[in-house]
């Protein structure tokens, strides 16, 4: 077995250029990462200050936080989950690694949508598992369907589901999610569901796969809805038969997440009002971009139902999305993400706008990008 080769995350190198330009005095608008520009909720920060002043802290897994997360599944989805199945992690990234390593062996085939979050493919490869990419186009709103999964021959051992998805923000409808679960049950495919964007929807709330399938592994995090990405806190809901395997891996690979973050995270669960205000901002930002993009000639998009991304087809303007996004950054100071990170094949023709910034910044970004895209359109048309 050789050491697997994995692709770099191109958006990170683009962001490095953005930060260098900023250090040279350029005004940069960061729309490259899916990172809320708001901080942690006020009460969570206050709790962290208090803990720092009063508690020496040690390795710790907060039972109150596990119980609070379990209660969240009952309140939000009407699903009973025992706190023993909740494993606290330093974000969704280790939770994904724990889910994959405790369910699948090297060589296992694990299916996923293309386009999809860059780390799915690369984490699978790192673990010597085989990503089975399912091409999901504009007609599928870039999402998996039960029919596409059913058509895989031989069936994979696992499936990664993400709804709302990165890079598109599209959500699986309730009947489609139920149909996907039914196919997976019939074909004995274990589901790993990345629910990191739950809470960030603009219409109907997203459904958890746990409403249909208690054997699924569910990944979640405080990085997005809770606006606490730098606090590095997340969780995995392990299937009953995988809890011991996951706990053994946590104890050896990671140990518990930051104690300070666990204290703050517990309080964040009661900051809904403040956090829901962020969702209103994202919805305003989404609407502004959805109005602007067609004016720039970017018409092939699936309007996002959630998260804070728009994935746009720029195929009439370029076949090299990385160079295109770097040029956009240098000319306008607006940093975005090239589609190649999410889809190494078709992604050359796509780019992703993250709108997790203030509405004032989105307005400024649109003001800067309008003449730039208009000029590109003219060049492409002439
Ligand atoms: C779909 C998806 N899953 C997982 C992650 C990783 O999140 P975390 O910061 O919780 O590790 C991200 C980060 O952007 C993401 O978009």
Automatic annotation (TrEMBL):
It catalyses: L-aspartate + 2-oxoglutarate = oxaloacetate + L-glutamate. Residues 60-368 form the Aminotransferase class I/classII large domain. Its cofactor is pyridoxal 5'-phosphate. The keyword Transferase applies. One of its GO terms (molecular function) is transaminase activity. The keyword ATP-binding does not apply. Its EC number is 2.6.1.1. Keywords: Aminotransferase, Pyridoxal phosphate, Transferase. SUPFAM superfamilies: PLP-dependent transferases (SSF53383). It is an enzyme of class 2 (transferase). It comes from the Bacteria. It holds the Pfam family Aminotran_1_2. Belongs to the class-I pyridoxal-phosphate-dependent aminotransferase family. This is aspartate transaminase.
């Amino acid at each position: 077995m050789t050491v697997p080769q994995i692709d770099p995350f191109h958006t990170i190198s683009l962001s490095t250029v953005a930060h260098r330009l900023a250090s040279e005095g350029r005004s940069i608008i960061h729309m490259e990462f899916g990172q809320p520009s708001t901080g942690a909720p006020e009460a969570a920060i206050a709790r962290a200050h208090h803990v720092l002043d009063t508690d020496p802290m040690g390795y710790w897994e907060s039972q109150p936080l596990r119980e609070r997360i379990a209660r969240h599944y009952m309140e939000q989805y009407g699903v009973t989950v025992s706190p023993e199945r909740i494993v606290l992690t330093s974000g969704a990234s280790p939770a994904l690694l724990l889910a994959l390593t405790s369910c699948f062996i090297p060589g296992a085939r694990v299916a996923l949508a293309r386009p999809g979050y860059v780390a799915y493919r690369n984490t699978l490869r790192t673990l010597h598992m085989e990503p089975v990419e399912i091409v999901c186009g504009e007609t599928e709103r870039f999402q998996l369907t039960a029919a596409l999964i059913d058509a895989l021959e031989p069936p994979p051992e696992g499936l990664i589901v993400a709804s709302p998805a990165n890079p598109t923000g599209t959500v699986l409808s309730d009947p489609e999610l139920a149909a996907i679960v039914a196919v997976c049950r019939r074909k004995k495919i274990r589901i790993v569901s990345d629910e990191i964007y739950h809470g960030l929807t603009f219409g109907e709330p997203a459904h958890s796969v746990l409403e249909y399938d208690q054997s699924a592994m569910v990944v979640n995090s405080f990085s997005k809805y809770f606006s606490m990405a730098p606090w590095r806190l997340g969780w995995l809901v392990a299937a009953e038969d995988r809890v011991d395997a996951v706990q053994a891996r946590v104890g050896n690979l990671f140990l518990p997440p930051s104690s300070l973050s666990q204290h703050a995270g517990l309080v964040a669960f009661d900051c809904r009002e403040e956090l829901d205000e962020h969702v209103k901002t994202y919805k305003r930002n989404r609407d502004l971009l959805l109005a602007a993009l067609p004016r720039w000639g970017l018409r092939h998009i699936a309007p996002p139902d959630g998260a804070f991304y728009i994935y746009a087809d720029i195929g009439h303007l370029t076949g090299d999305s990385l160079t295109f996004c770097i040029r956009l950054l240098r000319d306008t100071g607006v940093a975005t993400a090239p589609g190649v990170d999410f889809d190494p094949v078709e992604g050359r023709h796509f780019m992703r706008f993250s709108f997790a910034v203030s509405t004032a910044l989105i307005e400024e970004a649109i003001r800067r990008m309008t003449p730039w895209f208009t000029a590109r359109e003219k060049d492409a048309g002439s």
